Amino acid sequence: MIVDGREPFFVIGSLILAFLLLIGLVLFLATAIIEREELRMQSEAERAFNSVFLALQDSTTKALKTMQEQNVSGVGVYSSMGRKVLSLGNVPLTIPLAKFGNKGGKQDSNTGTATYNKETGMIEYIRFSRLTILLDTGELTLTESGLLPTPIDFPDVLYLHFDGENYYHRLMVIMFVSILSIFILIGLFLLVLNIYQSNRRYRDTIAKQESLVNLGQAARTLTHEIKNPLSAITIQLALLRKTLPKENLEDLHLMVQEVDRLTQLTNKVSDFLRNPLGMPEVVDLNELFSTLIKRFDKPIRFRTEISAQILIDKDRARSVFENLLKNAVESCEGDPEVEVVIKGGKRGLIHIFVMDRGDGIDSKDEKKIFDPFFTTKIHGSGIGLSISRQFVRARGGNVRLYSRDGGGTVAEVVLPRSIHTTKRLESEV
User: Fold this and answer.
1) What is the value of pTM for the model shown?
2) How confident is the model over 241-269, as a mean pLDDT?
3) DSSP secondary structure letters along 279-338
C-alpha cells in the first residue's frame, strides 16, 4: 500500500509518464503518416516522370496529352549548372540544384527527388541522368537561336513540376489533427489531474469529518463524565471554605480557580457539540466591540466604516469576538497593537478584521489552527477558534486567519448583514 504522503508523487508521476507516452505516440504516428505522404508524393512524381518522358520519346503531342493526364504543368531539361536547355509547358529558366541536395554531381538515373515548393504550391521533381533526346521540328524550344534538328547526347538534369494542392491539403490535415490530438491530451491530463486532486481533497475532508465525529462522541462522553465529579468537588470546596481556618483559604482559592477552569472548558466543549445557531437576533457590532474592548487591559483601536448590524445569537457573537480579541491581545508579551476594523463588502457582507502585531502564525501551524484542542499556548485549551468558526459558519459566514503584512496576524470574520439593515439601506437609496 502506498504511504499517503507519497501517493501524490506516484500518482502524478504516473499521469505525467502516461501523458508523455501518449504525446510521443501521437508525434510518432504523425511523423509516420507524413513520411507516408512524402513517399506517396515521390511515387506520384516518379510515375508522372516516367509517363511523360516515355511519351516524349514518341512525340511532343503525345507528351502534352500525357502531361494533361498526369496533371503535369511543365517539363524541362537543364544543364548541369541548372540552366534551361529545352522545355515543354511552363518551367523556370533556372533551377537551384543545391535545393535538391546535388550541385550537378552524378546520381543514379533511375531515382529522383521530389519536393514541395511552398512559394509556388507546386511539387518539383528532378533527376540527374544522361539521355539521348530526339527533338521534333519546332515543338521543343532549346535555345534562343532556334531548334536542333538532330538527336543530341549530353549530360542533363530532368525536371518536371505539377500541382501540389492535394499533397499540401493532406499535410495540413495531418498536422491539424496531430496538434488537436496533443491539445486534447493536455486537456485530458489536466482534467484527470484536477479530478485526482479534487478526490484527494474530498477524501481528506471525509477523513477529517470522520475524525471530528469520533472526537465529538468521545468529547461528549468525556464532558458528561467530568461534569459529575466537578459538581461534587465544587460542593466540597464550598463546605471547606466555611470550615477551614483563614490561613488555609489561599490554598483553597487555587483549587477553586482550577475547578472553574475545568468547568469553563467543559462548557466550551458542550457549546462546540450542541447546535451552533442558537437564537439569532440583530446585534450591533459597534456596540458589541465598544463593550468588549473595555474588558481588556491593553489598548485596542477600533475603527468602522459602516453602521454594522448582523443577525446572530448574541452570546455566540460575544464568544466569537471575545475569543479573537483575547488571542490578539495575548499574541506577544509587549504591546500587540491590536486594531479592529469593520468594512462593508459585496453581496451584503460585512468584514470584521481583528489585527495585531504579535508573533504571528507559524507556517507549519496554518492548517491546524482551527483543529479542536490544537493550541500553542501553555494554558490554552485549543477549542476557542473551532467554536468561533462553527458559530460563524452557522450564520452563513466564515473565519480566516492569515499573516499580516509587516508582521502579526489578521483574523477576518465575514458575516451577512441583518435583513433589517439591508432593507433600511435600500430604502435610504
Assistant:
1) 0.47
2) 74
3) -EEEEEHHHHHHHHHTT-SS-EEEEESS--EEEEEHHHHHHHHHHHHHHHHTTSSS---E
